[in-house]
User: Which sequence fits this backbone?
């Protein structure tokens, strides 16, 4: 009886009751069932995610019966059988490999990188394999190590988007909260009633309900917009410097062309020449700037790029591959050192060699940095040599093995190019259509001539221009402002090329004019500053690859005329003009000064503040309840008779001693121990003097504890452990 009373203030360890085991089983059912359903849904194995609840039931039953000593080995036995079955039976093993391939497909779509699948031979039953795997995990989910593993796995799955935040996630969250409150924070007494056991779920249930309500208010696309905002913020903080002068395709807050003298790149060339060093490449035009192709859209080309890369063909080096196929292999060495340019990207010349590229990367527009300093090489020359290579390859086709191999690879790559680099928004298409309505331009030479003629006469170069009118960037530039600098010209030229059916992309980087390059000797250090930043268009020259298209005044020379028009019509491919825009993005421009991402970010802040406020309120309420509980327990000791009060007060002193390094004997421990033993095990009455001795002993221990404890320990023992 005395021992039972002492447990009311959490002094001795408790033993689980049936009510507590039921509460734990409920928590395990929710956690295991929710987790199983999430994985079944993610792996798309062809069964209803609700099937995961059966696994949750099995785990809950196992946990309930493992509450007794005879049942503690049941989870281990079940797990051992499941694991042995998985590794012993080829069918189940192959099923796991199939599940792994599903995950790899998702990762390919999420990362834009090729993930080679596992080889799963023979019959495969992924459903059965997943069931055995989940049972093996879920029957042990209450174990701290397994719980941490499952929590980490779920967090990683949610972070990468493999798992979704739906009703199954809420069930899983509820179960995890219940397990934590039941197993790791056992503040309730030994004789826990069904009512008090269920009350353990009050806080997790409230949290889950609050999260569910908040999620219902989250607007569509919230996660994607927040992720985009976070990516831009991280990119700006991690990779950009304050001196970077180019917008990297983001035109929403585009200001004047703010160039500066900050050193950006340090380069040396074996043969100094006119140079475009390409950094950011815009692939998808969205009406207010340029973006990269989404990884999920690149994933469908994983097989094609794997074949191309195995054959040594890369989009970045397609021009040099074409030149090699015609017999020109005179490479010129080059070194590049990044001083302050965006550190995420490699800055590469055209006709670069294919060394150093990632074999498992899908796409080729934006190449990640090779490091702060890197060596490369390129085949010297420019547009004249590249146009000539197109003609030479045409003449060699069918008669030269190297040319045929290059053209076979290039044709596979060209299919990807045509499918992804002709997109225009409706507004931009309409504006361009009004400009070139009735145009009969069909060959590349004719199309280029018309574009250059319009940009020369129809718009004015102005580095101080900053407004984009709050509408489609290209449409506003072409029809209203008619003023701008390189990003405006390059964007318009890229979309005009696409309008005429020529695949094109927007590019940013650093430009070294031919006149300036001529001032340097071989191997001499050249510093490119932010005054060298530039934007240009590039289009796909069939058979050869991506080549720059310069349209901005002050940057143009006669190279284009010498090259494109020197072929005398030999490159006579005719392009078909689109009748309708090939849109690969839904344009939804905001109507006011606040972007949708900023609105979503505001909602995120509001939700975060609300959740934090609710958590603070819940914590305060919890502390108040626990403080009152302690106060009530100590008051019960004060009001108890001597024989009941002495063991309780001595037990309280023992609890204090567990949390401080104190020599209790110097405060009267021996005498207090004798009095406590007499109160517990004898029929003698306890005198007021004996009770006073115990009370004074406990008070001395408490005072000494306060002297020993640091400020943090005082706060922890008062508001977390609730022992004084």
Assistant:
């Amino acid at each position: 009886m005395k021992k039972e009373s002492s447990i009311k203030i959490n002094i001795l360890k408790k033993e689980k009751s049936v009510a507590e085991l039921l509460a734990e089983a409920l928590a395990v059912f929710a956690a295991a069932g929710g987790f199983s359903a999430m994985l079944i849904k993610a792996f798309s194995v062809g069964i209803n995610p609700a099937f995961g609840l059966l696994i949750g039931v099995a785990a809950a039953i196992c946990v309930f019966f493992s509450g007794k000593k005879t049942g503690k080995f049941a989870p281990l036995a079940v797990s051992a059988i499941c694991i042995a079955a998985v590794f012993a039976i080829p069918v189940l093993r192959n099923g796991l490999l199939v599940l792994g391939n599903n995950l790899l497909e998702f990762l390919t779509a999420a990362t834009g990188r090729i993930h080679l699948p596992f080889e799963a031979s023979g019959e495969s039953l992924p459903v059965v394999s997943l069931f055995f795997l989940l049972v093996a995990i879920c029957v042990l989910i209450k174990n701290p190590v397994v719980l941490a593993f499952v929590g980490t796995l779920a967090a990683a799955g949610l972070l990468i988007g493999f798992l979704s935040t739906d009703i199954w996630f809420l069930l899983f969250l509820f179960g995890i909260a219940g397990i934590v409150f039941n197993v790791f924070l056992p503040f309730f007494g030994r004789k826990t009633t069904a009512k008090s056991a269920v009350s353990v779920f009050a806080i997790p249930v409230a949290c889950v309900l609050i999260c569910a309500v908040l999620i219902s208010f989250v607007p569509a696309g919230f996660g994607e917009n927040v992720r985009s905002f976070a990516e831009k913020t991280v990119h700006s903080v991690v990779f950009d410097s304050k001196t970077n002068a180019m917008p990297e395709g983001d035109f929403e807050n585009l200001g004047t062309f703010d160039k500066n003298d900050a050193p950006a790149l340090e380069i040396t060339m074996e043969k100094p020449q006119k140079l475009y060093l390409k950094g950011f490449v815009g692939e998808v035009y969205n009406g207010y700037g340029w973006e990269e192709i989404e990884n999920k859209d690149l994933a469908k080309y994983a097989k094609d790029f794997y074949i191309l890369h195995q054959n040594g063909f890369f989009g970045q080096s397609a021009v040099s591959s074409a030149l090699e196929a015609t017999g020109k292999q005179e490479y010129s060495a080059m070194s590049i050192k990044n001083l302050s340019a965006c550190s995420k990207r490699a800055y590469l010349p055209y006709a670069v060699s294919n060394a150093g590229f990632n074999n498992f990367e899908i796409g080729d527009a934006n190449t990640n940095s090779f490091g702060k300093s890197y060596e490369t090489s390129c085949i010297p020359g420019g547009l004249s040599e590249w146009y000539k290579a197109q003609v030479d390859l045409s003449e060699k086709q069918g008669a030269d093995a190297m040319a045929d191999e290059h053209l076979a690879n290039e044709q596979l790559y060209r299919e990807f190019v045509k499918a992804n680099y002709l997109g225009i928004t409706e507004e931009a298409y309409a504006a361009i259509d009004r400009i070139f309505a009735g145009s009969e331009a069909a060959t590349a030479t004719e199309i280029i001539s018309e574009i250059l003629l319009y940009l020369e006469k129809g718009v004015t170069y102005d580095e101080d221009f900053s407004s984009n009118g709050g509408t489609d960037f290209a449409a506003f530039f072409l029809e209203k402002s008619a003023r701008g600098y390189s990003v405006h010209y390059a964007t318009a030229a890229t979309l005009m090329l696409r309008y005429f059916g020529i695949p094109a992309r927007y590019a940013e980087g650093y430009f070294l004019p031919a006149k300036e390059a001529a001032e340097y000797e071989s191997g001499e250090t050249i510093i490119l500053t932010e005054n060298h930043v530039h934007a240009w268009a590039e289009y796909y020259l069939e058979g050869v690859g991506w080549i720059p298209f310069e349209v901005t005044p002050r940057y143009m020379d006669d190279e284009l005329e010498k090259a494109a028009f020197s072929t005398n019509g030999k490159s006579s491919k005719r392009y078909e003009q689109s009748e309708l825009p090939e849109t690969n993005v839904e344009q939804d421009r905001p109507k006011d000064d606040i972007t949708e991402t900023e609105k979503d970010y505001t909602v995120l802040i509001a939700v975060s503040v609300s959740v934090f406020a609710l958590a603070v309120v819940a914590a305060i309420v919890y502390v108040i309840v626990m403080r009152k509980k302690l106060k009530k327990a100590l008051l019960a000791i004060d009001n108890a008779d001597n024989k009941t009060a002495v063991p309780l007060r001595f037990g309280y002193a023992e609890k204090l001693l567990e949390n401080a390094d104190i020599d209790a004997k110097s405060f009267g421990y021996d005498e207090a121990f004798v009095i406590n033993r007499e109160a517990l095990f004898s029929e003698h009455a306890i005198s007021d003097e004996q009770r006073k001795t115990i009370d004074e002993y406990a008070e001395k221990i408490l005072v000494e504890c306060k002297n020993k404890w640091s400020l943090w320990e005082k706060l922890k023992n008062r508001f977390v452990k609730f022992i004084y």
